[in-house]
């Protein structure tokens, strides 16, 4: 195994340290480039190949960006290396389950456009995901050429989080897209997230990904249709790696409590001074949050957004926890049934 060759795929010392001498000698590390349900596409220092998911069952649930250890001859998965980061959400629809978006990222490019898609509350959701995963967020405002003045939108986005970097660009212009080069260098991994039609595929192609299908947006509401249909890891001209993701119409938060606290640190800071620890920041006396709003020190929209996301996160986290508990109990039940079967069989023998 050549660690220098693997570095072009995002390999770093933190992964190397997880290998035992035997694993380093006898197994090959590969990175998951795409997941198509029955197959996964893998990248290794020697090339790209597809594997049936049945061959990597021992690795557990995998996400695009994960590192797996395989047996060299059979290519059977042995285990998944511990992730440095994981971006996940509650899956869309009525099913109560977590959906893995991307693993082992350095940067999350949160893409929105300078039209109807621009929405501060939606940006706060993505920022909470990035904060929970300890991944650097960069907000990218596309279609700046179609906006009379993108500066007010950029300033609004910058106020969402201290130190947040916001770039306004025309995703078709290589010169403007070059402002993102620092996040796309050798061994660095970025992911694109955002709604359909905001220009993620166009941006990916300008960054150096091969040709991708793109579609026009609807003029009446600036909404697009899904172009990317599955998460996929691509190599970039600058030496980095980019994970393109399908557009997200619904972004439900779960297991994201600390991420919310980081994004809404202004609300949390005022809440620490409320008279009552269980203050709901509504009509209670001595509510420091409401006092800050009245004095103009805190935007009321921020409190409304925080309370909504906090309630959603708590509800979804509870549902996921209950589902995990049910799955654990079901697994224990199956094990007890199989154990009883084996015991009966040994008694008959």
UniProtKB/TrEMBL annotation:
Single biological process term from Gene Ontology? ribosomal small subunit biogenesis
Any one GO CC term of this protein is: cytoplasm
Q: Which residues form the EngC GTPase domain?
A: 103-249
Q: Which UniProt keywords apply?
A: Cytoplasm, GTP-binding, Hydrolase, Metal-binding, Nucleotide-binding, Ribosome biogenesis, RNA-binding, rRNA-binding, Zinc
Query: What cofactor does its activity depend on?
Result: Zn(2+)
Basic and acidic residues bias located where?
312-329
Supply the InterPro entries for this chain.
G_CP_dom, P-loop_NTPase, Ribosome_biogen_GTPase_RsgA, RsgA_GTPase_dom
- List residues of the CP-type G domain: 93-251
Top-level class of the enzyme under EC nomenclature: hydrolase
Residues bound to GTP are 142-145, 194-202
Q: Where is this region: Disordered?
A: 312-349
**Location in the cell:** Cytoplasm
Q: Quick one: which residues bind Zn(2+)?
A: 274, 279, 281, 287
List the GO molecular function terms. Answer: GTP binding; GTPase activity; metal ion binding; rRNA binding
The record's cofactor note says: Binds 1 zinc ion per subunit.
Its Enzyme Commission number(s) read 3.6.1.-
Give the transmembrane region(s).
none
Q: Does the keyword Signal apply?
A: no
Q: Which family is annotated?
A: Belongs to the TRAFAC class YlqF/YawG GTPase family. RsgA subfamily.
Q: How does it assemble?
A: Monomer. Associates with 30S ribosomal subunit, binds 16S rRNA.
Q: What does this protein do?
A: One of several proteins that assist in the late maturation steps of the functional core of the 30S ribosomal subunit. Helps release RbfA from mature subunits. May play a role in the assembly of ribosomal proteins into the subunit. Circularly permuted GTPase that catalyzes slow GTP hydrolysis, GTPase activity is stimulated by the 30S ribosomal subunit.
What is the designated name of this protein?
Small ribosomal subunit biogenesis GTPase RsgA
């Amino acid at each position: 195994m050549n660690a220098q060759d693997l570095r072009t795929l995002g390999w770093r010392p933190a992964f190397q340290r997880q290998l035992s001498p035997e694993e380093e000698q006898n197994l090959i590390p590969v990175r998951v480039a795409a997941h198509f349900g029955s197959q996964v596409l893998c990248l290794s220092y020697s090339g790209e190949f597809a594997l049936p998911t049945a061959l990597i069952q021992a690795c557990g649930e995998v996400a695009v960006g994960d590192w797996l250890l395989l047996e060299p001859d059979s290519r059977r998965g042995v285990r998944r290396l511990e992730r440095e980061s994981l971006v996940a959400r509650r899956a869309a629809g009525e099913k109560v389950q977590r959906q893995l978006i991307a693993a082992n990222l350095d940067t999350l490019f949160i893409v929105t456009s300078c039209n109807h898609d621009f929405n501060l509350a939606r940006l706060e959701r993505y920022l909470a995901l990035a904060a929970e995963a300890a991944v650097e967020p960069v907000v990218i405002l596309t279609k700046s050429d179609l906006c009379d003045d993108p500066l007010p939108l950029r300033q609004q986005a910058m106020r969402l989080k201290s130190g947040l970097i916001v770039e306004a660009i025309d995703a078709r212009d290589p010169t403007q897209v070059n402002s993102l080069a620092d996040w796309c260098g050798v061994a660095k991994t970025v992911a694109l997230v955002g709604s359909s039609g905001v220009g993620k595929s166009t941006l990916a192609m300008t960054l150096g990904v091969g040709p991708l299908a793109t579609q026009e947006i609807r003029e009446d509401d600036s909404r697009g249709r899904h172009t990317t249909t599955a998460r996929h890891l691509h190599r970039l001209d600058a030496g980095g790696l980019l994970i393109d993701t399908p557009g997200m119409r619904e972004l439900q938060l779960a297991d994201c409590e600390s991420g919310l606290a980081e994004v809404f640190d202004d609300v949390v800071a005022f809440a620490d001074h409320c008279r009552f620890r269980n203050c709901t920041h509504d009509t209670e006396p001595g509510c420091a949050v409401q006092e800050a709003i009245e004095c103009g020190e805190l935007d009321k929209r921020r409190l409304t957004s925080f309370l909504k996301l906090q309630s959603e996160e708590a509800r979804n986290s509870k549902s996921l926890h209950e589902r995990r508990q049910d799955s654990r109990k079901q697994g224990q039940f199956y094990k007890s049934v199989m154990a009883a079967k084996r015991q009966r069989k040994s008694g008959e023998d």
